[in-house]
Every structure is written in C-alpha cells, then in structure tokens.
C-alpha cells in the first residue's frame, strides 16, 4: 500500500479509549474486508459465550467451577451475594492488613517495622506479582520485594542470602491455592527452616494466601501465622493478579491497588461491547486469528518499549500459552491449538533478535507496546532537538515500519504512562482477548490438563526414587542399573533410575555410582 492508503487504513482501524488514554492499532495486520466478514460468526459466538461466563456459567468442567476474575473489579456483577461479599471483604482485609504493616502496628518481634517482603509462589502466583512489582513499585517503596518462584535449592539460597541482616524484619507471603503444589510448599519448608536456624519464629513473619481449608490454610492457622487471605476456586492462577494473590504484595509495596482495579474495570466495560471496531480485546483476538490462520501458526512476539514493562512478555506467556495451548477442542477433537509467546523489550531487541524478525523466518507477528510519557519531569537533549525518549519512540516507529515493509505484521498498543490504572487495564485487556480467542477457536481457555499431567509425572518419579533408595539399602552388593530397576519393581524404567541415581550421587544422598560414566549400561550402583 502507498502512504496515503496506509494512513487511511490506520484511521479506519484505530481504537481509542478516551478515559484510559489507550490506543490500539491493528492497521499493520494485513487482514482485508472479506476476512472480517468471514470471522463475524465466530466473534458473535465468542461475545455470547463471554456473557454466559461472566454470569456464572461453569467454564471449567474439569474442576466444575466458574471463572470469575471479572468480578474482582466489579463485585456487583458476581452471580451470588456470597461472592459479592467475599470480594469486598477480601479487599477490606487487604487494606486493613497493609495499613497496620505500614504503620508498624503489625511488626516482627525484633523490629519496629517490616522492611522486606519475600513472596513464595509459582506460575500465576509469581508471574503477575513480579510483573506488577517491576512495573509499578516506587523507587523508595515502604517494603522491598523478593521472590522465590522455583524449587531450585541454589536459587532459594541466593534469595535468602540477599536478605542478609534483614531476615528478622522480612514478611513472608506463601501463595498456594491448594497448599500442596510442590514448588511453593518446598519454598515454605526451606524458608521456615532458614528462619529457625537463625533463632526466629517463622509464624510471626508469615502470611498465607490460599484456599479456605487447604493444607496451607490449616498449617497457617495451627501455627498462628499473622494473617490468612482467601483464594477462591473461581479464580485461576493466571488470572489471579487482581485477587489477593497480586493485590496484597502490590499494596505492601505502596502501589495503588484501587487504581489498578479501576483501570481493569474500565477496560472490562470497553471489552464487553459486542462490536469488533469498538472492542479492543475483540480486535486483538481477531488479529491473532488472522495471523495464525486460527491455528496458532505464527508466534506472538511482545516488545514493550519501556524498561518497567520488561516482564510483561513473561506474564503474557503464561496467560496466553496456558490458556490456549490445548490438545483437544470443546468437542473432543484433536486440534493442537495455542499461540507461542516470547519477547524482551525495545530497544534491547534492536540489538538482539529484530534482525531475524526483519529478515528471517516469517513465523511470527509482533506486538509493540508504546508508552507516550518518557519520564516524570523534563528530559535533557542528548543531541540537538532530541531526547533519549525521542530515540526510544523513533526506534519503535522504525521497527514497526521496517517489519511492515518486509511483510511482517504487527500490532501497536499505546498507553499514556505506566501507572496502576494503565497496568490494570492492560491485564484486563489481555485476559478478555484470550477468552474471546479461546471461544473463537473452540477451546477451553480455563483449564490446564497438561500442567496437571506434568505434576503427576513428577510425583511418579519421586515415588520411584523412594523405591530405588529402599532397594539400595537392602542390597548386599553393587548392582547394575537393570538389576536395580528389577529390585525397585520398575524393570522398564532403567533410564529414569539412571538419572535418579546420578542425581543422588552428586548430592551425596545414598547412591554410589562406579564405572565408565560414558557407558551407563555398564555402571555399578551401591548404597553410599
């Protein structure tokens, strides 16, 4: 297209939300009017399905639960008075607790105030809070934030070492709906042990965010933790940032959570409009469908041109890929759906993988995130007539143009500044876009059977390890891997047992491996 035609297309397809100062530009996606007409029935179906979802329909049949993260920012829409009350009471509980922590009314035994937060969670219980902390935490936050988001012992040690002499004034948040998810449970056990080694009472430093009656809930109440906040079964992990999971750590850091909720509510209202051009989430979902032919044939590359939005692509990875990556559709057909998401930030990407985006395999579409405000205050000119922010803006516009010129499509999302309201709006926008797209391609965006399968497989490996250790202790002489597998009752699991004993030996935990390590089948295994 020539410049005049592109300018007209930009005006025809530009979405602007005056209240949020939010722009969405899908004009550089090469769909045409025929495609828009073709996709209308699926969009209509998605609009109707979303209405039913928000009214309380069972959207996750695997767990027989509703999906109601929308009610968190507008409890008046919740389908029952009990849910409405739960939402409002939880928000009040968060505000009350945070106020008491900030004032020092709630404080650790050996300090006047808490100085740090250590958040223990996994998946949605970590990615959302990490994204928001990076995006919005003040330079001089009332409490500093750290995360344990894995079951890596060395990683846990490094986080705890970073606390140094502030351990005694650190508030620990343990986040797990069931209380049985291995990663947060292991993190809790490790941190509790570390506190006890320092002569500190862990319970006087701990708060839980968990399901009512869960294992974690029972532990927290039995040990007298500082507070327990609820996680409801109608909130999935990847859509939990605007629940206690994300609001509590954000508020403790001094972030305006009411503004986050207000921004999300305003975006929710905009994305309920059953009209493509007036609904930014529908425009995103339609563009994703077009880019990947409704089958996820192209990846989504997310390039936020703002340091504070660095973790947005990681947050979107879970939201998009866990929601849409499904083997079967709602009718039980094998479809292998999903959209792969990756990204870093601009302009770092100019010097990293934009070369491939511009000239390599055209297996992606880009999402550029633009922030209009450069900084709080006046910028100096780094050269005549140009500031650092001018360069950043120029690099974004240049990337968009360079991609389009070489037949690479892109979407541009523009916000006026990074603040609690706009971040809440971005969260709500992508939550709705994922939901609409899921309905368009006929998959359940609100369950995650593949994740559960991985957890079960890991549990099976740990069970096998127990049998291997028992067999080693009972043996009177070294054995081959095949003999050990037979004694452990798993003759078809030789490879898994090899990896188990290799790990045990490296950590001096009951296995001694001798022989030529390059030939696993010839090794001899004995108890250490």
Report on this structure.
The chain is an alpha/beta fold. It has helices spanning about 5-15, 35-55, 80-105, 125-135, 155-165, 180-195, 215-225, 245-250, 255-270, 280-290, 310-325, 355-360, 390-405, 420-440, 450-475, 480-485, 495-505; strands spanning about 15, 20-25, 60, 65, 115-120, 145-150, 170-175, 205-210, 225-230, 300-305, 340, 365-370, 410-415, 510-515, 525. The protein has a 6-stranded mixed β-sheet, sandwiched between helices. A 5-stranded parallel β-sheet has the order 6-5-7-8-9, with helices on both faces. The protein has a two-stranded antiparallel sheet with strand order 3-4. α4 runs parallel beside α8 (about 245-250), α9 (about 255-270) runs parallel beside α14 (about 420-440) and α10 (about 280-290) packs across α14.
């Amino acid at each position: 297209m020539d410049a005049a035609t592109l300018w007209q297309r930009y005006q025809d397809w530009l979405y602007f939300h005056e209240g949020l100062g939010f722009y969405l530009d899908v004009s550089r996606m090469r769909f045409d009017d025929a495609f828009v007409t073709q996709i209308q029935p699926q969009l209509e179906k998605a609009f109707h399905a979303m209405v039913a979802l928000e009214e309380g329909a069972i959207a996750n049949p695997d767990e027989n639960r509703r999906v109601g993260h929308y009610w968190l920012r507008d409890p008046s829409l919740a389908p029952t008075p009990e849910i409405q009350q739960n939402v409002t009471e939880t928000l009040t509980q968060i505000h009350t607790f945070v106020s008491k922590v900030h004032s020092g009314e709630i404080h650790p035994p050996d300090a006047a105030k808490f100085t740090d937060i250590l958040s223990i969670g996994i998946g949605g219980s970590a990615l959302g809070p990490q994204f928001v902390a990076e995006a919005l935490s003040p330079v001089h936050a009332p409490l500093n934030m750290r995360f344990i988001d894995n079951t890596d012992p060395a990683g846990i040690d490094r986080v705890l070492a970073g606390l140094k002499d502030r351990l005694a004034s650190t508030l620990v948040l343990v986040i797990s709906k069931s209380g049985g998810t291995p990663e947060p449970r292991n993190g809790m056990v490790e941190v509790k042990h570390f506190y006890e080694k320092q002569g500190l009472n862990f319970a006087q430093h701990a708060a839980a965010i968990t399901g009512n009656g869960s294992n974690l809930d029972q532990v927290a109440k039995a040990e007298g933790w500082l507070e327990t906040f609820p996680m409801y079964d109608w909130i999935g992990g990847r859509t939990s940032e605007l629940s206690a999971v994300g609001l509590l750590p954000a508020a403790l850091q001094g972030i305006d959570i009411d503004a986050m909720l207000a921004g999300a509510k305003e975006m929710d209202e905009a994305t309920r409009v059953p009209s493509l051009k007036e609904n930014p989430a529908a425009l995103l979902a339609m563009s994703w469908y077009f880019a990947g032919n409704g089958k996820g044939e192209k990846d989504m590359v997310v390039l936020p041109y703002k340091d504070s939005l660095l973790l947005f692509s990681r947050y979107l990875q879970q939201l998009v890929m866990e929601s849409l990556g499904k083997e079967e559709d709602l009718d039980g057909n094998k479809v292998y759906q999903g959209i792969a998401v990756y990204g870093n930030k601009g302009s770092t990407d100019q010097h990293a993988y934009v070369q491939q985006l511009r000239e390599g395999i055209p297996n992606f579409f880009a999402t550029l995130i633009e922030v209009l405000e450069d900084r709080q205050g006046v910028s100096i000119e780094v050269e005549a007539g140009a500031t650092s922010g001018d360069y950043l803006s120029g690099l974004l516009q240049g990337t968009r143009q360079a991609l389009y010129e070489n037949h690479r499509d892109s979407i541009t999302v523009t916000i006026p500044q990074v603040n609690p309201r706009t971040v809440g709006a971005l969260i709500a926008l992508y939550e709705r876009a994922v939901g609409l797209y899921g309905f368009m391609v006929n998959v359940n965006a609100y369950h995650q059977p593949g994740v559960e399968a991985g957890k079960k497989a890991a549990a099976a490996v740990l069970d096998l390890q127990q049998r291997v250790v028992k067999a080693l202790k009972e043996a009177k002489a070294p054995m081959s891997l095949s003999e050990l597998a037979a004694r452990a009752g798993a003759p078809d699991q030789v490879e898994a047992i090899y990896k188990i004993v290799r790990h045990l030996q490296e950590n001096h935990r009951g296995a001694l491996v001798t022989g030529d390590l390059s030939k696993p089948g010839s090794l001899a295994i004995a108890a250490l």
